[in-house]
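Sequence in, structure out.
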Amino acid sequence: MNSEVLLRFGLAIAIIGLGIFAYWFINQRWLVRASHNIFTLFKKLPNKPVLVYFTTPECAPCKTVQRPAIDRVSNLLGEKLQVIEVDATERPDLAKVWGVMSVPTTFLLDAHGEARFVNNGVARAEKLLEQIQTL
């Protein structure tokens, strides 16, 4: 009986590890994809961190949670951060090129245009600020 429990525990740990690896790998692909497509948004880099925010008019969490979080971060950082909002229904080409499959999705780019973080789903202001501080 104990060996069966240990086997199941080992399998559960392996499945969790595989899930974590898959999530990390997919995020890395999104970051590379975003970095390669930075000039779909800019002709010239702004030389400061950029938050790219994909949303839609029908997205309730975008309006009630994500937009207030981005406004708070933007108010705290002022001119030190550029925020670009992309309506995925108006610009499905950009959403596709950037690999956006759901909204809200936020990307944080460093001052050199390198995508450093992607947040699928709502990212609270504290998380965004923490990510920006590492840039």
